[in-house]
């Protein structure tokens, strides 16, 4: 995979988008930033990362060959690749918290933000943004956050971690067009945090309800068996899974 290393930029996702705009025939490329000035997270949040300790990168993936309605499959495959890659470093209890937070021992150690370029109804490129906390020691304002270091007590060489993750990602992306949606989702569900366990969910108005995660759709909606024994589907804007 091509690798571009940059010092300080706003966001590797934005950089990747520009790169694709300039050259539609660009190969799969990873953009790694030493520092992001405006790192973005899911649900309009910002992504903060201590300089020199962690990994913040994006993989520009042109022409992923999946219908826009099934774009969650890419997200599921990326989450599974990260878990598989991180397993090689012996981290405890690695799980994916829907939709795509990576947890180790219940601490969020990585986040994924996938942004798509859609032209005339077709997915022309996906930008897979990944923030992984590697050696950061403290997360004063984020009680649920952690790093590879905080969960294992060991420090890691970020470049070595990146090499392993990019290798896993490349393998998964190569497989993507040959795998059925059911197989990709099964692999994702096998790693899902609180799958099949009674859990609490929060709506945007802060009200809560309990239910059991029963599945995930190729479009990304979470299927929850609610207390009245109904299977209900929720998208990212409708609910948040509480810890
Ligand atoms: C989340 O909220 O969990 C997703 C975080 C994604 C952060 C990464 S860091 C590299 C890439 N560039 C960005 O601006 N965001 C993603």
UniProtKB/TrEMBL annotation:
Residues making up the signal peptide according to the UniProt record: none
InterPro entries found in the cross-reference section: aa-tRNA-synth_II/BPL/LPL, Biotin_CoA_COase_ligase, BPL_LPL_catalytic
Keyword Iron on entry: no
Key word Aminoacyl-tRNA synthetase present: no
UniProt cross-references to CDD domains, sorted A to Z: BPL (cd16442)
Molecular function via GO: biotin--[biotin carboxyl-carrier protein] ligase activity
Record-annotated BPL/LPL catalytic domain positions: 1-177
Keyword list, A-Z: Coiled coil, Ligase
Residues in coiled coil: 159-186
SUPFAM superfamilies, per database record: Class II aaRS and biotin synthetases
Tree of life domain: Bacteria
Gene3D superfamilies (UniProt xref): Bira Bifunctional Protein, Domain 2 (3.30.930.10)
EC number: 6.3.4.15
NCBIfam families linked: birA_ligase
Record's protein name: Biotin--[acetyl-CoA-carboxylase] ligase
Source organism of this protein record: Salinimicrobium flavum
Lineage per the UniProt record: Bacteria, Pseudomonadati, Bacteroidota, Flavobacteriia, Flavobacteriales
